[in-house]
Each structure stands twice: as structure tokens, then as C-alpha cells.
Design goal:
Layout: E1 2-4, E2 7-9, H1 15-44, H2 47-92, H3 99-180, H4 185-197, E3 203-207, E4 210-211, H5 220-228, E5 241-243
Length: 245
């Protein structure tokens, strides 16, 4: 004997009441299973995290490229500066006395000076780009961390919900077995066929003289017969089992 929503289920219960309770149980089991299925789909869907990871990789690569550009420009500056200093030392060392050679050294020094200035401007621009990339990367990292944290919280909540639903379904399955005891095999077969045909809903309530399954009116005779609880009564329109409280 099991108490189901305030109703005692046992083998002596009428078929009509038992089939109604069976429908309630099956509906709850179906909802639980559907929710568990949806939870599994959500848990398997990692697109948000994968997108955040992809964005992080792109931002990291962009930052790396910007840093490499700065390093490359600085390396060229160092090389050109070294050549310039070497030329200046030679120009003013007194070891070079040939006017043409001195003129060439001076021209070379001027050219290197101009090149150093160009490279310094290039480095400044590269540093600005690098700083922008750094800020962008920091923002993407924050976004990635937020996505991962939120995903972790959601996963934990959904796993707990799924576990609770699974435990509830086990209890409902036990109640279902008891309800089956008072349902004839033929009626159960019709019930299962109707469940398949009408998306899981084989038994419906009669509300204000209307079938809650199809919305059509139910005859007074059918309502009285269903209310008696001795025989199974079907809706004349949709053929679902009728239950009158």
C-alpha cells in the first residue's frame, strides 16, 4: 500500500481510479525523464565554453604577435644604433683623414639617425598596439573566467536536479507497480495504445462537461457512467479515457 498525493493505492481500488492515478504517475515520470534528457543535452553542450576558449586563444595570439613586433622593432633599433655608434666613433677617432671617406661616414651617420627616428616612431606605435592588445586580453580572460565559473555552477545545479528527478522517478515507478495491480490487462493495453497515440496522455479529466483532452463536450450519460467508477468510459471524440472527480 502506497499513499500517492493523499490517495491510498492498493489492489482493491477500482479500475477507473487506478487508471487515472496511473496516468498521473506516468505523466510525472514522463516529465522527469524529459527534464533529465534536457539536462543531459545542456550538460553536453559546451559551445559557450568552447567559444570563450577560442576567443581567449585568439586574444593570446594577437597579444603574442604584438609583443613579438615590439621585440623585433627594438632589435632593429639596437642593430642600427650600434652601427651608428660605431660609425660615429670612427668619424671622430682621427684615424680617417680621407675627405671622401669622412663624407661617406657623415652621410651614413645621418641616414642611420633618420632610420633610428623612424624605428622609434614604429616602436611607439607597436607599444600602443601592444598595450591595447594587453587590455583586450585581460578583458577576454575575465570573460572566460566568468563563463567557466557560471558553467561550473550550472553543471552542479543541473546534476543535483537530475539526481533528485531520478530518485523521484524511482519512487514513482514503485507507485506505478502498485497501481497496475488493479488494472485489467485489456484495459492496460488500451491505455498504453492511447498513450502512444496521444503523446502520453490517455486519461483526461472532465471539467464543466468538457473533455480536457480535446475540448469537446461530453454527454451526460458518459459523465454519469464515468463518475460511477465501475466501467471505463471513453470520450466520443478523442477516445481518451474519461475521469470525473
Amino acid at each position: 500500500m502506497i499513499i500517492h498525493w493523499g490517495v491510498i493505492i492498493d489492489a482493491t481500488m477500482s479500475t477507473v481510479v487506478s487508471i487515472y492515478i496511473l496516468q498521473q504517475i506516468d505523466t510525472k515520470i514522463d516529465r522527469n525523464n524529459e527534464r533529465i534528457r534536457r539536462i543531459e543535452i545542456i550538460l553536453a553542450d559546451r559551445r559557450v565554453v568552447e567559444q570563450a576558449s577560442e576567443d581567449l586563444d585568439k586574444a593570446t595570439d594577437t597579444m603574442r604577435s604584438a609583443s613579438q613586433e615590439c621585440t623585433a622593432v627594438q632589435g632593429e633599433i639596437d642593430i642600427v644604433t650600434s652601427k651608428h655608434e660605431s660609425g660615429e666613433k670612427r668619424l671622430y677617432s682621427g684615424t680617417v683623414t680621407n675627405p671622401k671617406e669622412l663624407k661617406d661616414l657623415q652621410d651614413q651617420g645621418d641616414a642611420l639617425t633618420r632610420r633610428i627616428m623612424e624605428l622609434e616612431d614604429k616602436k611607439l606605435n607597436a607599444m600602443i598596439v601592444e598595450e591595447d592588445c594587453k587590455d583586450a586580453l585581460e578583458e577576454v580572460v575575465r570573460q572566460y573566467d566568468t563563463v567557466v565559473d557560471e558553467r561550473g555552477v550550472l553543471q552542479e545545479e543541473l546534476r543535483l536536479e537530475s539526481k533528485s528527478l531520478s530518485n523521484d522517478t524511482v519512487k514513482l515507478a514503485a507507485e506505478r507497480e502498485v497501481a497496475l495491480n488493479s488494472i485489467p490487462v485489456e484495459v492496460l493495453g488500451n491505455y498504453n495504445n492511447a498513450r502512444t497515440k496521444y503523446r502520453g496522455v490517455a486519461v483526461v479529466l472532465v471539467n464543466d462537461g468538457m473533455c480536457s483532452g480535446c475540448g469537446m463536450g461530453v454527454s451526460t450519460a458518459s459523465i454519469q457512467a464515468a463518475r460511477g467508477g465501475d466501467t471505463m468510459v471513453n470520450c466520443d471524440n478523442c477516445n481518451r479515457f474519461l475521469y470525473v472527480k
